[in-house]
Amino acid sequence: GNAEVNRHIALLCRERHILCNCIDAPAEGSFIVPAVARSGSMALALSTGGASPALSRRWKGELTTWLEARQKMVRLMGRLRPMVLALHDETGHNTALFRALAQSPLQDHLQQGDRQACLRCLQALLPPKLHDRIPELLDVIA
Length: 142
Known about the structure:
It contains 7 helices and 2 strands, in the order H-E-E-H-H-H-H-H-H. By secondary structure, it is mainly α.
């Protein structure tokens, strides 16, 4: 809590090649720690470049809320990936499929718990070979 002591410690660390994080004076340290928001299997890091640790903390809360809203989509995509890979299509085809899913309204339908809208979206985007697997993908809604 003392700026002079912190500055002295940062100098000693720099002289001895020891990593030092100076939260109140980021330019004096050798690294900064971003705010990390976690939700389920997702993590997102945010840094303001040391400009405002308080702002990073506030955004961390907002990012956590944002991530939590996407957990169903992450679980669905995680279940879908091995199914898609088992089809042995070209990588470009798989990439296009996942991009189409990510850009579709599926995320909103999952968040709203609208099973029928999810079903229609998946039927429209997934290869017909996977249509019989849709019910197990939609278990993420429950």
